[in-house]
Specification:
Blueprint: E1 2-3, E2 16-17, H1 25-36, E3 41-45, H2 54-63, E4 69-74, E5 77-78, E6 82-86, H3 90-98, H4 104-108, E7 113-117, H5 118-124, H6 135-142
Parallel strand pairs: 1-2, 4-7
Antiparallel strand pairs: 3-6, 4-5, 4-6
């Protein structure tokens, strides 16, 4: 499913689920994923990462089996919007948000988190973590 209130995403023919905690950014979106998921492990992917590839996703999934969260770290920064989250995280994640923790890197420290080498993943796919957030990003990339 896609966490959004924007109906333009119906074009992907997947269920749309609105954030139940409004205006909390990515932390609230992940909270919604964990609340609504019916599976043990959830691959969370930001909508602004168009160069994600099957091998990178499979690598994250393979690394996630024994952990609550598996997240790549690129140049010492966790890429928490390309990660695997266990549904078992939901209550502690939600409690952290309720207590005012909204920074993803802070929330990640509350769990058995495996940090994988995002630099190695980027070596395999140089555009993996490239964000496209505007028409200008797209025009800059096309040049």
């Amino acid at each position: 499913f896609i966490v959004t209130s924007n109906t333009v995403y119906t074009q992907f023919q997947l269920p749309l689920i609105e954030d139940h905690l409004k205006e909390l950014g990515p932390a609230g979106g992940i909270d919604t994923v964990l609340q609504h998921s019916t599976v043990k492990h959830n691959l969370v992917v930001a909508c602004d990462m168009p160069f994600i590839d099957r091998n990178s996703l499979q690598y994250l999934i393979n690394e996630s089996k024994q952990y609550e969260i598996t997240v790549p770290v690129l140049n010492q920064y966790p890429e928490a919007l390309l990660a695997v989250y266990s549904t078992s995280c939901y209550q502690r994640w939600h409690d952290g948000i309720e207590e005012g923790t909204l920074k993803l890197s802070d929330l990640l420290t509350m769990f058995a988190t495996k940090f994988v080498d995002g630099n190695m993943m980027q070596f395999q796919n140089p555009l993996l973590f490239k964000n496209m957030n505007s028409r200008q990003d797209l025009e800059d990339f096309a040049v």
